[in-house]
From TrEMBL:
InterPro entries the UniProt entry points to: DUF4386 (IPR025495)
Official protein name in the record: DUF4386 domain-containing protein
Pfam families documented for this protein: DUF4386
Transmembrane segments: 12-35, 63-84, 96-116, 144-164, 176-195, 207-226
Protein keywords: Membrane, Transmembrane, Transmembrane helix
Organism expressing this protein natively: Fusibacter ferrireducens
Length: 230
């Protein structure tokens, strides 16, 4: 009977983490995969401005999605920390620090999108009062800070992959997938941010590694939902 409170707390952490991961995945697919790709065209500031004019409501919905991502990221950080405390307190704490640091950079990135929304809302979109180049600079700053954050996110997944591989309850392949995902995130975004001359190679590498990057954490989320903490 003395183990029940501990088991319940682990199960609660597992469920919170898995539910938050699923919500985050859907929000990211909408806000980044759909909204940003619908509106921002890196090679055409004028078209981007036109898209903002025609889809201002969609852009604001995307901002709500980013807010949801930030909240669920914090919940996942807490859930993973609690779940792996029993495995290794120091690595679990380090993993939480990496993820919360990523969240801080994500907030910094999203502030640029909020500024874009304010500019678009306060000015007459038909007039020439908005500088399309300024809009693109703000979007590039969003991309820059988010990419920096994803390096830390990769380090977080490496910590979680290590912890999962050491936890006898978690299947070995889950730990391996998390480690591969973490290394992929860190490597790709280090290349993007610090080695711009290799952009074409990095883009190809990201395409090749996109599946393990997605499957790693999402697969762990599915396992947490079904068996985590039981």
């Amino acid at each position: 009977m003395t183990n029940h409170p501990k088991i319940n707390s682990l199960r609660l952490a597992a469920l919170f983490s898995s539910i938050s991961l699923f919500i985050m995945t859907l929000a990211a697919a909408f806000s980044y995969g759909f909204v940003n790709n619908q509106i921002f065209v890196n090679t055409d500031p004028l078209l981007t401005l036109s898209n903002l004019k025609e889809a201002s409501g969609l852009f604001k919905a995307g901002l709500l999605g980013w807010l949801l991502i930030i909240v669920t990221d914090v919940l996942v950080s807490w859930g993973f920390y609690v779940f792996f405390l029993k495995t290794n307190r120091k690595i679990s704490t380090l993993g939480a620090i990496f993820r919360l640091s990523y969240v801080a950079l994500l907030i910094t990135a999203v502030i640029n999108l909020v500024q874009i929304s304010r500019i678009a809302s306060s000015a007459n979109m038909v007039s020439d009062s908005i500088d399309p180049g300024h809009i693109m600079i703000l979007f590039q700053q969003f991309d820059y800070f988010w990419s920096l954050g994803l390096i830390l996110f990769g380090f977080h997944l490496i910590c979680i992959g290590f912890l999962a591989s050491k936890d006898h309850q978690v299947p070995n392949f889950i730990g391996l997938l998390l480690l591969i995902a973490g290394l992929s995130y860190a490597l790709i975004h280090i290349l993007y941010r610090f080695f711009p001359d290799f952009h074409a190679f990095t883009t190809t590498l990201e395409t090749l590694l996109s599946l393990p990057m997605i499957v790693g954490e999402l697969g762990f989320g599915i396992w947490l939902w079904i068996k985590g903490g039981k």
